[in-house]
Specification:
single chain; 285 residues; mainly alpha; 13 helices
């Protein structure tokens, strides 16, 4: 029987991935602001918004004692995930970047078993393999052959590994800190890791009302709301299940990039979507 906690966790992850799907499109619309600068503003604004929500809901009144070293590492992992992902979009297509980033369930399964001692069943492992196959088909097996595309692929793979660690950290801290306090602190610390690089490249002339609005939307919707919902899901279901559900961003992100930006979606998209959904169902049921 499926527990109420598992059901609510899956629903939270699905709500989160709906918001995640806007991320790649908004990153494109934030040009020509450099990728690390976009990641810095995104994390800073989201951190402030979520901590303000924590204050308004009374979660900060409990005054939790932070392990500064551990949270510093969490912030670094989060900065690496967002910074590498945004950077990869400057070298490769949205579909390809998302397909590589969402090999993350492989990392999550390994990390959750290693660090949290959470078992991963054979059926879940098979489902994860099917999900990775599905997102690969969706990207059209787009294997880079030039240096620029290879660099984009490498950045996306680094983001996938960081996302795996980010997911496991969020689940591991579920009993120690209130949700909004944990999420807001991690986002804010991640922005501080990116501050030196963002400050080095800062040029006010790059900012327009349009791309500033895109960066603000990127901070609020896919991150402050979307990733906080994802962290809420991690508190209810196995990290591998939540992360596999998040792979549906590949479908939504690629569709939005096609609909708004005209980026091509491979003809194998329908097959890739079906295979991905089959893998997701195998993991979560």
């Amino acid at each position: 029987m499926v527990s109420p906690s598992s059901t609510s966790g899956a629903l939270l992850a699905l709500l989160a991935v709906t918001l995640f799907s806007t991320s790649a499109l908004l990153v494109r619309l934030s040009a020509p602001v450099p990728s690390l600068e976009v990641a810095f503003w995104r994390l800073l604004v989201a951190g402030v918004v979520v901590l303000l929500a924590a204050r308004l809901t009374g979660q900060l009144s409990r005054r939790p004692t932070f392990d500064a070293r551990r949270f510093g590492v969490y912030g670094l992992i989060t900065a690496a995930h967002f910074g590498l992902y945004i950077a990869s979009l400057g070298y490769t297509t949205v579909a390809n970047a998302l397909a590589i980033v969402y090999t993350a369930p492989v990392f999550v399964a390994a990390f959750s078993h290693a660090f949290l001692r959470e078992p991963v069943t054979r059926r879940q492992l098979a489902g994860i393999a099917v999900v990775v196959l599905g997102v690969s088909i969706l990207a059209g097996y787009d294997i880079a052959t030039d240096a620029r595309r290879l660099a984009g692929d490498a950045l996306a793979l680094g983001s996938a590994a960081a996302f795996g660690l980010y997911s496991v950290a969020g689940r591991g801290e579920r009993a120690r800190y209130p949700l909004l306090v944990y999420a807001g602190a991690v986002y804010l610390l991640a922005s501080l890791w990116l501050l030196p690089a963002a400050g080095f490249s800062f040029d006010v002339a790059r900012y327009t009302p349009a791309n500033s609005a895109a960066i603000a939307a990127l901070a609020v919707f896919p991150l402050a709301v979307g990733h906080t919902l994802y962290n809420a899901a991690l508190r209810r279901i196995h990290a591998a299940r939540a992360n596999v559900l998040s792979t549906l961003e590949v479908v939504g992100g690629a569709f939005l990039a096609w609909a708004v930006l005209g980026e091509p979606v491979p003809p194998e998209a329908a097959l890739g979507t079906a295979v991905t959904l089959a893998g997701v169902l195998a993991v979560i049921l």
